[in-house]
Design a protein that fits this description.
- There is one protein chain.
- The chain is α/β, with parallel strands linked by helices.
- The protein has two domains: about 80 residues, Four Helix Bundle (Hemerythrin (Met), subunit A) (Up-down Bundle), CATH 1.20.120; about 190 residues, P-loop containing nucleotide triphosphate hydrolases (Rossmann fold, 3-Layer(aba) Sandwich).
- Helices cover about 50% and strands about 10% of the residues.
- The protein contains eleven helices and eight strands.
- An eight-stranded mixed sheet has the order 3-2-4-1-5-6-7-8, with helices on both faces.
- Helix 10 links the parallel strand 6 and strand 7.
- The chain is elongated and about 65 Å long.
- The relative contact order is 0.20.
């Protein structure tokens, strides 16, 4: 089976094709730089990052003949520089047992499967998880979480459809304490079209869980779908208003020509990017690497010894 980084490389290939299509001029004149800037913006790096890269090229290499490899190298170095501060592993706080993780995001971004994959990631590192099916408005979410629970050997706390998510969160933390679990992952609904109701629900979940652990949640992870491009920026803004988002997980990089949105997120918010996902399988979610991502985005040439 192809390695994770091979699949990430393939996923980012659609973004890198946009960039490479602009590199038809060997001489970095105005036309070449304008085409490259348009390509970078088209790959959703964001205008600020694109402008800075082009300004650097204009200052140091304008009018010169440069190889595609040199452009790739400079681009990947700049992108990696932006991403390095946010490429932060997710590490449970040993001072809290269980470490309570509230998982938020709009519907369809992959919150439920992300929880299952994270539970497997930590199970492989001998950490146990409790999964709470807090998206009570979507029956499929509960079913998905129960399937993941069976796969990774994690207990799942669920209730009736349309039930009280806050009560489930309370029960999940309580049972996780009784079972000695290291982590509790709490799924949530993502009805962004009804922002007021979503805010009320998230506020209630946090208020109720603090009756059993006044320090919870210890992490609030926002899951984002890379295929939404710049819309992901608005989702971060909204959820930062609703809850204290502590980190990001970016999914569906295997199906997006907008992988550059990760750079725009880093530039605009500086929130840790803990994991990225490239598919539906358990091993398709892995910790985020700034350098490998940058190289894959620019040239589709991620270095992977496993290939």
């Amino acid at each position: 089976m192809a390695s994770f980084f091979s699949r990430l490389k393939q996923g980012l290939n659609r973004s890198s094709q946009k960039i490479n299509a602009a590199l038809t001029h060997r001489t970095l004149d105005d036309a070449a730089l304008n085409a490259l800037e348009d390509a970078l913006i088209g790959a959703d790096l964001g205008p600020a990052v694109a402008a800075r890269v082009i300004q650097d090229f204009r200052r140091t290499r304008f009018g010169k003949d440069v190889s595609t490899e040199e452009i790739h190298r400079v681009l990947s170095q700049e992108i990696a520089r932006v991403l390095a501060p946010v490429a932060t592993p997710f590490t449970p706080d040993v001072a809290h047992k269980p470490h309570v993780v509230l998982v938020v995001g709009v519907n369809g971004v992959g919150k439920t499967t992300t929880i299952g994959k994270m539970a497997q990631w930590f199970a492989q590192r001998n950490l146990t998880s409790m999964l709470v099916a807090g998206d009570t408005f979507r029956a499929a979410a509960t079913e998905q979480l129960e399937i993941w629970g069976q796969r990774v050997g994690a207990r799942v706390i669920s209730g009736k459809q349309g039930g009280d998510a806050a009560g489930l969160a309370f029960d999940g933390i309580q049972k996780a304490r009784e079972d000695g679990c290291d982590l509790v992952f709490i799924d949530t609904a993502g009805r962004l079209h009804n922002k007021g109701a979503l805010m009320d629900e998230l506020t209630k979940i946090i208020r109720v869980m603090r009756k059993i652990d006044e320090t919870a949640p210890h992490s609030v992870l926002l899951v984002l779908d890379a295929t939404t491009g710049q819309n992901a920026l608005e989702q971060v803004r909204v959820f930062k208003e609703l809850v204290n988002v502590s980190g990001l997980v970016v999914t569906k990089l295997d199906g997006s020509a907008r992988g550059g949105v990760v750079i725009a997120l880093a530039e605009n918010f500086g929130l840790p990017v803990h994991f990225v996902g490239v598919g539906e399988q358990a091993d398709d979610l892995q910790p985020f690497s700034a350098l490998q991502f940058a190289e894959g985005l620019v040239a589709g040439q991620i270095k992977d010894d496993a290939d």
